[in-house]
Write a structure and sequence with these properties.
Length: about 90
């Protein structure tokens, strides 16, 4: 049975580098949910992936160069900001 795509615009096997509050890790889009133990770290990584996916979608529609990284602050439910950087490899 086929595994559903987690983030539109990316394959689950796409390799990425995730840096959250200075802690960096190499993984895949599908591996984000199993690599981070704490929910707020998973949420920050998925927020960054969603932002990168949206940026790439709108750049493609405007016939611009596709971005390969995003750097942002992610706010979780306790309103604590986490600095997130996602790079495509």
């Amino acid at each position: 049975m086929r595994t559903k795509t987690l983030i539109d615009g990316f394959k689950n096997s796409q390799k990425i580098r995730v840096i959250i509050d200075g802690f960096g890790i190499y993984t895949t889009v599908g591996g984000v949910s199993s690599v981070f133990a704490h929910h707020s770290l998973k949420q920050a990584a998925f927020d960054g992936l969603l932002r990168l996916s949206n940026d790439r979608y709108f750049a493609k529609r405007a016939n611009e160069e596709l971005p390969t990284m995003v750097s942002m602050k992610s706010m979780n439910t306790t309103q604590i900001a986490k600095q997130v950087q996602i790079d495509l490899i």
